[in-house]
Write a structure and sequence with these properties.
elongated
Length: 72
């Protein structure tokens, strides 16, 4: 897409309107379906965890990445 420069704000054309009023909602729904199709939604645990060693932190990270409970 080419970049156009304008000397004054008045020279800028108005934005093109959406084809229908529901076009934005339809594109948002399509994007949500794509997100669901790409894979499961994993959330990082909330808060701050403190570890006594690097080994304990690595063990916790590996457990989280594999889907096992962190305290197991």
């Amino acid at each position: 897409m080419a970049v156009r420069r304008y000397r004054r704000v008045e020279d800028i054309p108005p934005p093109e309107p959406a084809p229908t009023p529901l076009a934005g909602i339809a594109s948002a729904c399509a994007l949500a379906e794509l997100c669901v199709a790409l894979g499961p939604h994993r959330r990082a645990p909330r808060g701050v965890r403190r570890f006594t060693s690097v080994h304990a932190a690595d063990t916790h990270r590996e457990a989280w990445e594999s889907g096992r409970p962190a305290d197991a």
